[in-house]
Design goal:
There is one protein chain. The protein is α/β, with parallel strands linked by helices. An eight-stranded parallel beta sheet has the order 1-8-7-6-5-4-3-2. Helix 6 links the parallel strand 4 and strand 5. Helix 5 packs parallel to helix 6.
């Protein structure tokens, strides 16, 4: 994939983050899920989910894959579709700015138009990187894009609130610092109520993305409030596996053939 086409896809991906008209990304994890979602009318970009990719590879989330394996999984999705792809790149598979720059450079070479980078140290949402360290990593990711001539879209994940509801102020401080360091969007986990979404939008001086599920603020309301991006993380894998489990149960019981058994791909 040429740098020019990757740059164009990055520009397109950035343009789709509109407060009040959010980008909705149904997360994918391999070639077939990417192609199915990309073929849905109205879908304009894709995003991977690291948890789903890890499960598909039989390893734990939280950089259970090494960086080479993660890049290969990303490239498989990217080369399967023509749409911009944002890659859930976990912690950039690096503990410092230098390693982040190198790995994000490789991700751009693989054709990624965007990436998530998270600020927690382990599989849980706490503890977190020191804010100065995380700021330097985000700045390094931006530097990698600048050097490659690709305005890669950085969706900077803020994990603290999801682990501890009392850390709202710290999460806002981190979100703003990440935006100042070159992130395009602050991806704040833990915005579980309309009031929290409103507060985040009021106090964060840039675009905000959220993760949603059945108990989250409704999608239409998130749009009205001014969110710029909504994703579902491993929830889409859960949705898929739930349908698979139910079909297996129905077939094993010699029940009716599920209509979806005739789905053509």
């Amino acid at each position: 994939m040429s740098t020019q086409s990757t740059a164009e896809k990055a520009e397109l991906l950035r343009s789709l983050h509109i407060p009040g008209d959010p980008l909705i990304v149904t997360n994918v994890w391999d070639s077939i899920t990417a192609r199915i979602v990309a073929g849905v009318p109205g879908v304009k970009a894709l995003a991977t989910a690291s948890h789903s990719i890890s499960e598909a590879h039989g390893v734990e989330d939280g950089e259970g894959l090494d960086v080479d394996e993660a890049l290969a999984a990303a490239q498989l999705v990217i080369r399967s579709v023509d749409l911009p792809v944002s890659v859930d790149f976990e912690k950039a598979y690096a503990k410092d700015a230098a390693g982040t720059l190198d790995n994000v450079w490789r991700l751009i070479e693989a054709g990624a138009a965007g990436l998530n980078i998270e600020d927690s140290l382990g599989q849980a949402k706490a503890p977190l990187y020191e804010i100065d360290t995380q700021v330097s990593k985000i700045a390094a990711a931006r530097a990698a894009g600048d050097r490659a001539g690709v305005p890669i879209v950085i969706n900077a994940r803020v994990d603290g609130l999801a682990a501890d509801p009392s850390t709202f102020d710290d999460s806002v401080t981190r979100a703003n610092a990440y935006l100042d360091a070159g992130a395009d969007v602050a991806f704040v986990l833990g915005l579980s109520t309309e009031d929290l979404v409103k507060r985040a939008l009021d106090e964060i001086h840039g675009k905000v993305s959220v993760i949603s599920g059945p108990s989250s603020v409704p999608l239409a309301r998130l749009a009205e409030l001014g969110v710029s991006r909504v994703s579902f993380g491993p929830g889409i894998l859960g949705l898929t596996l739930s349908h698979l489990r139910d079909a297996a149960e129905q077939l094993t019981a010699r029940g009716d053939y599920p209509a979806e058994l005739g789905f053509s791909f």
